[in-house]
Amino acid sequence: MSLFLTIHPANPQIRLIQKITDILNSGGILIYPTDSVYAIGCKIGEKRAVDRIRMIRGIGKDQDFTLLCRNLSEVAKFAKVSDSNFRILKAKTPGPVTFLLPASSSLPTRLFQPKRKVVGIRIPQNNIVMALLTELDEPLMSLTFAIKNDPYGLSDPDEIRQRFESVVDGIINGGYCGIELTSVVDLTGQVPKLIRAGLGDLDSIM
Fold first, then answer.
1. Which top CATH class is 3-196?
2. Which of 56, 93, 115, 128 could pair covalently with 123 via S-S, beta carbons 3.0-4.6 A apart?
3. The model's pTM
4. Long-range interactions of 148-157: CB distance < 8 A, separation 24+
């Protein structure tokens, strides 16, 4: 049975954040709120955790993870960021937009399709996730927490607990999230390309 913790969305309790971090550092998987929908994630490099997440989500290896980062300096460790793309990221982060960028050589191949070498990056605007990323001191591998054949994420933490506490290691109750997904913008070409319309301010870049 997983650890279920209610964490204040505006002022996350550090002792609870530390408990969640211990789960991730032990190779566990976590369900947590973001500034869009609830997500499921684990630490980079945890192959067994990645396989568990794919099984829970009912997805194959063709589904890429998003990397949740604290800031642009962290993004630059795992993605190649041109000057023009840096300006876009600086203007539009943090927030509920996922940006596709060329992957750097330091990124584990399980995070992206080897033939494409593209990684999804997001800097979330959610106090709980930012506190978690700060305590963890590294990005999270993340996917929208949706069930198979359902394009929308689950928004009720009590429903999530009832249905999934037996298959994950930790669940953060940060209150209700919405059901609208992030926008996805491809920055790997000459001009930005909208892949999925969703949340986020895209003025001036599309």
1. alpha beta
2. 93
3. 0.92
4. 148/57, 148/58, 148/59, 149/58, 151/181, 152/37, 152/179, 152/181, 153/36, 153/37, 153/38, 153/39, 153/177, 153/179, 153/181, 154/37, 154/38, 155/37, 155/38, 155/179, 157/33, 157/38
